[in-house]
């Protein structure tokens, strides 16, 4: 989400994940102080160093796609900070009331912010990180915050504790603030790599000679998903000691040849983890041939088939898909991630991307691009099986979507059945809602065919 001095602008954020609220720009008063503006020519305009890891706040010349970009948006910086510093995946940065979600532990709102905590703007969907705390003054590091002409980045902004516009969220694993524990530095050594295992090692500086009683290692795949967390007891009071793990022999994980993995060592003192940086390696050998399924293609289950949605969920989903009509083909390729298939159809291309944040289902966003511009966009959910239950569920969702769009659209609806399982409602050449069956399995979809006006509740 972008912000500018004295105003916060809300435009949807497909950080695709589609994050943000609202379709049309909304302006709100910005209470942050200390208005320092820095030229964006250099790209990096600010940085923060935590646990020996430096994370940059980066900018590029402004256009609307910055709001959705997985590198330059405000949410992208927060996610990058937690990924690089802690090896953790953060999500849920979607609204003025949402609480950040993390793949280990949880965030809790706090009135005593510390370095590394997440900041939420409660009036415009904007996210940032606490860089410094001095008394009641909190210094912010953020991306996508601008001056009024969108030529310079807003750097060094400050917030006063207790300002009701802002909320602070602290993660239990945050070890960036002043510690009463040891001062540990983890120096990784070159790993010994085979096809199905690797031996990873490090030397740990413990200059205060704290009595370390636990150490451990986190193993992740290339996307940062945790495969195994291993913790072991030990007694290490030395000023420097060694750590090493045979991933197959000690962690019990058989690796895949020719595959990238991430790992991170940590020291535990009094129940608190002191992590090193995240490292990567690639196993030897040839990676196995991929299955026929496309990477990133959404897969439904009986559980997601039964997920209920609110009328607001439907309204929001239509608004986000309709918003794609402001996109260029470059925006589509940059911001719709992951794209799992591209079909070239002469003078137009069709992009297929996975999304789970619209109507709470693993669905597809299917975008048709012609002459470099989006000309049609569809949200489509395919049910997991052909059964009486999924037929009933899909028809119920279809009817709910039609009821909502009746209130949303200014044009009249024309509904018909091409055959017994096909239910279709069209709003002239603007919007179409369909429940149909492919190979005996139902799907539900709505297709946006123009950048129409509607009543966004």
Describe the structure.
This protein is mainly beta. The chain folds into 3 domains: 3-171, endopeptidase fold (from Nostoc punctiforme); 185-282, Sandwich (Immunoglobulin-like), CATH 2.60.40; 302-448, no CATH class. Helices cover 12% and strands 40% of the residues. The protein has 5 helices and 35 strands. The strands form 9 sheets. It has an 8-stranded antiparallel β-sheet with strand order 28-29-30-31-35-34-33-32, covered by helices on one side. The protein has a 6-stranded antiparallel β-sheet with strand order 11-18-12-13-14-17. It starts with a strand and ends in a 9-residue tail after the last strand. Residues 4-30 and 176-180 have low confidence and may be disordered.
Low-confidence runs (pLDDT<50, min 5 residues)? 4-30, 176-180
CATH architecture term of the largest domain: Alpha-Beta Complex
Number of domains: 3
Q: Using only CA atoms, what is the Rg?
A: 25 Å
